[in-house]
Design goal:
The chain is α+β, with helices and mostly antiparallel strands. The chain has nine helices and nine strands. A seven-stranded mixed β-sheet has the order 3-9-8-7-4-5-6, sandwiched between helices. A two-stranded antiparallel ribbon has the order 1-2. Helix 3 packs across helix 4.
Length: about 240
């Protein structure tokens, strides 16, 4: 009996749950009072235990007259429950492995304090194999890179790169390049910097006479930014 109870506990039952289940197997149908008497477990606790066993699918009940009688299910059902549990675990293994890989992946950030460094990253973006997601904070790009602005969009078109851009409604009447898809957020919503998500990287640019660029590399970070962009994209209007 001790070994059986330990095996049931390994299955996930508490000591008292295993005790109640085994007693019910012997008694067949039994009331909560009869189970309490046999197990020496307080009747108030018996009801809680029986409820948990019902949730697990190990106990059923029937009402005879005004009495509720409980019955343990066929022990073979435990194997079915265990197989179902294994199948559920098997189904989530790919996602667990994915999360593990994301956790293991190193992330790094590089700061660019000169226009040449930022321009090199912008040029890298034009060769992106993934869709580009752009949080635009106005056209600081055209102001501080006037000689490269049109060239950049030309390279994107030539390489057939897909791009979505989010902007504030305040910029709706601005001279927007005819490239990719645009959506607009309420005028009170502004981005403090231009942020571009591409591949597994994020480029953040603070525009000024001496612009500052921050390049973050990492799948976890890029996925987080993509999810954030997609939430705002659904809320934005064309």
């Amino acid at each position: 009996m001790g070994d059986i109870k330990k095996t049931l506990q390994a299955f996930g039952l508490t000591e008292n749950e295993a005790e109640v289940y085994l007693v019910l197997l012997k008694l067949g149908y039994a009331t909560a009072s009869e189970i309490a008497s046999k197990t020496q477990i307080h009747r108030i606790n018996i009801y809680d235990i029986l409820e948990r066993l019902q949730e697990r699918g190990l106990v059923s009940f029937a009402i005879s007259g005004k009495r509720k009688q409980y019955e343990a299910i066929d022990p073979k059902k435990i194997l079915e429950i265990e197989e179902e549990r294994k199948e559920n675990i098997k189904n989530i293994i790919p996602e667990l492995l994915k999360q593990r890989e994301l956790g293991k992946e190193s992330q790094e950030a590089t700061i660019y304090k000169d226009k040449n460094g930022i321009r090199n990253i912008l040029e890298e973006i034009t060769k992106s194999k993934s869709e580009i997601l752009l949080f635009a904070s106005g056209w600081g790009f055209s102001k501080y890179f006037p000689e490269y602005f049109d060239i950049w969009y030309g390279h994107l078109k030539a390489n057939k790169v897909r791009m979505k851009t989010l902007m504030s409604e305040k910029q709706k009447n601005a001279n927007i390049p005819n490239f990719g898809e645009y959506k607009f957020l309420p005028s009170g919503f502004t981005f403090p910097s231009t942020t571009c998500v591409f591949e597994n990287k994020i480029l953040i640019i603070m525009w000024s006479e001496q612009p500052l660029g921050i390049l973050i590399k990492g799948k976890a970070a890029s996925l987080s930014y993509r999810e954030y962009f997609n939430i705002l994209w659904r809320l934005a209007k064309k």
